[in-house]
Every structure is written in C-alpha cells, then in structure tokens.
Design goal:
Helix 1 crosses helix 2, helix 5 packs across helix 6 and helix 8 crosses helix 9. The longest helix is centred in the middle third of the chain and has 35 residues. This protein has four domains: 44 residues, no CATH class; 163 residues, Threonyl-trna Synthetase, Chain A, domain 2 (Threonyl-tRNA Synthetase, Chain A, domain 2, 2-Layer Sandwich), CATH 3.30.980; 35 residues; 110 residues, Roll (Diaminopimelate Epimerase, Chain A, domain 1), CATH 3.10.310.40. The chain is built from nine helices and 16 strands. It is α+β, with helices and mostly antiparallel strands. The strands form four sheets. The chain has a five-stranded mixed sheet with strand order 12-13-14-16-15, sandwiched between helices. A hairpin with a 3-residue loop joins strand 8 and strand 9. The protein is elongated and about 105 Å long.
Length: 379
C-alpha cells in the first residue's frame, strides 16, 4: 500500500484472513518508515500477529498513477511554455483529478492554456515508456532532474523519467507508459496567492466524462438556440447584441415618454409661493426615478424652484420633496414639508432642506398628503 505523501493520496483496498475481512479506507505515513492502514472491520475479528492478505484497490491505483504521471508531464509543459521560473508550489493527486500549484507572475491566457494542454497531450500520445530508477542526489542533479525548491532529499533518490520531456525526483506511483494516461484536459486555472497559480485537470476516463458533460451542455444550448453545435457562440453573440439594441431602443422610448410626462407635469407648476412649485402624483416610480424626475424638473424650472412628487409603487406610497438652493433661501425646506405631511400615508422620513423623502403604509392617503403639502407651502 502506498501511504499518502508528496501530494499523492494513500491507497485503499482490503485486508483479509480466512475468518475476517476489513476495508482499508486510507493509508498514511505519520513518520518515515511507518505505514498506517486505516481500516474498518466488516466481518469477523482480526487478531494481532495473525497473517493477513493485503490487497490494494488496483483500479483506483491505476487512476491515481495516470493522474500522477500526468502531473509530471503538465509540470514540464508549463515550464516549456511559460519559462523555467515555473516551480511546483503544491499538488494533489487523487483518483478523480489532479491539482498543480506553481509559481508564475500572472494569469494564463486562453492561448497559453491551449498550448500547454496541446504540448502535454503530444507527449502523452507519443507512448513513451517511463524509466524509473534510483541514483545519488548529485548524479540526479547533474542529469538536469527537476527537484522541488526548498525540499530536503536523501543522498539516494528515485528518478521518474518520461523520455527527454520530463525528469523529476519522485517516490510516487506512476504508469509504465505515457499512453496509459489517454489524454489530459485542463478544467480550471486561477490564483491561490501572490505569484502562485493553480491548475486543475483530469485524465483518461475522467477527462472523457468531463468532455461528454461539456458536449451535453453545448448540445442543449444548440437545441435551445436551434443552431448547429458549432454555431452556438456566434448565435449567442448575435442574440446578446440584439438584446443590447432592444434595451437601447427601449431606453430611448422611455426617455421620450418621460420627457412628455414632465412636459405635462410642468403644466401643474404654480407661482403661488413666489417661485415655481410643482406638486404632482406619478404612480409606478421607484426612488431612483423620483430623483431622476426632480433632476429634469429642476432643469426646466430654472432657479429658484421646488417640487413635491408622490408615487405608489408596488402598493407602497413614497413622497419626495426637493428644492434648489435659491428656493431654500426663499423659505422652502424639504425636511419640514415631509415632516408635515408624512402622517397622511402612515409613514415617516426626513432629509435636508434641499431634499427629503418619506415612505408609508397607507397608499390611500397619498392625495391628501400632496394637498397638505400645497397647504403647508402656501402659508
């Protein structure tokens, strides 16, 4: 059983005797030379000192070895494409996927990812036999082997070679030939720290399953768009442009309608308080629209000028009072107006002399509140 180390997960399997069997669900090495099998006895009783048959889950081990050798080839491809400054900064090798952290100063472009992926798969499909041997640390370094930066090694080391493409110090489990990996698919790339990037990938049957899921999603999109599979991107871009054009035209229409509405509103403005004052109700407006209306009204009024605008939006009444600095100098105070009329809508609010707002519960009281504003300002 291989114990978890070097980023590779521990083996699983079974331990059996003629009268009992146990599931090995993990294998670890808490210290050098000591291997611990984590087991759950499923049947019978295993006695200390008794001979047992330990069987590794061979199918799971095969998937791990494909991912581990795939990690070595990915590492070499990264160095070939990005530069020799790339060093391993962490890894995970499991039966379902691989993860590789490496030093690099910026995110990878799609072209770089494609180039790395292509180079890795070129090497995989060369069906290169792996050469695994032990040698001295000095001889390994002299041969140009890739070692982990800052890692301490024994004087006697194990080297894993995949032709001239990849040569690393490693004590893990590997395939006998790169063709066993099948192919490698990068599934994600991102940052995990300052100048440290992370790539996740899948190989062999997991890579095939990933591509099948990808194709399935693409086919569903193609069916929804009613276009051939390879026209999805073009049609999606065209549809997005149509949506943007429709939104632009809709905004133009809304602006025109709002301008017409404001022209009608301005007819309600009076000079009863000594400066232009508009008190009006326009239902369906949210807070942002209320303020937008005031901006337009203020520009049309000139200076000084003031407005009290009420609305019922989704069943809730809102009143906004606003005035120019010149209107405030002439006696207008939006905060006092709101305080005087908010009770009609069973609400409250406040603000500054130039702008204040109130929300309430009683939509039926909005008209009375607006009339109270006229009366208050006429005093």
């Amino acid at each position: 059983f291989y114990a978890e180390m070097g980023g590779e997960v521990g083996d699983t399997g079974t331990i059996t005797t003629p009268d009992a069997w146990a599931e090995v669900f993990d294998t670890k090495a808490p210290e050098k030379g000591l291997t611990c099998h984590y087991v759950k006895v499923k049947n019978g009783r295993i006695v200390e000192g008794e001979g047992v048959l330990a069987t590794v889950d061979a199918e799971r081990r095969s998937r791990i070895t494909r991912n581990h050798t795939g990690t070595h080839i990915l590492h070499a491809a990264l160095r070939a494409v990005l530069g020799e400054h790339v060093n391993q900064a962490g890894s995970y090798v499991g039966p379902d996927r691989l993860r590789f952290d490496f030093t690099h100063f910026q995110g990878l472009t799609r072209d770089e990812i494609h180039e790395i992926e292509q180079l890795a798969n070129d090497e995989i499909m060369k069906a290169t036999p792996l050469h695994i041997y032990e040698t001295s640390l000095d001889e390994a370094r002299a041969s140009g082997v890739t070692a982990l930066f800052g890692e301490k090694y024994d004087e006697h080391v194990r080297v894993v070679e995949a032709g001239d493409f990849s040569r690393e110090l490693c004590g893990g489990c590997h395939v006998k030939n790169t063709a066993e990996i099948g192919f490698l698919k990068i599934t994600s790339e991102g940052s995990v720290g300052a100048n440290v990037r992370r790539i996740e990938a899948v190989t062999s049957y997991e890579a095939l399953a990933y591509m099948n899921r990808f194709e399935g999603e693409l086919r569903r999109a193609a069916e929804g768009l009613r276009v051939p599979l390879f026209d999805v991107a073009e049609r999606s871009a065209a549809n997005l442009q149509q949506i943007k054009d429709m939104e632009r035209r809709s905004k133009q229409v809304r602006t025109a309608l709002e301008d017409d509405t404001i022209v009608e509103m301005m007819k309600e403005a009076t000079l009863d308080v000594g400066y232009p004052l508009l008190v009006s109700r326009r239902d369906g407006l949210d807070t942002a629209s209320l303020r937008g209306y005031w901006d337009t009204v203020r520009n049309r009024m000139g200076k000084p000028g003031a407005a009290v605008i009420g609305t019922v939006n989704e069943g809730k009444p809102v009143i906004m009072a606003a005035g120019t600095d010149q209107a405030v100098a002439a006696g207008f105070d939006a905060g006092k107006v709101i305080k005087a009329i908010a009770s009609h809508i069973q609400g409250g609010g406040g603000g500054k002399p130039t702008m204040a707002q109130a929300g309430g519960k009683n939509a039926d009281g909005l008209d009375a509140a607006l009339q109270a504003a006229r009366d208050f300002l006429a005093k």
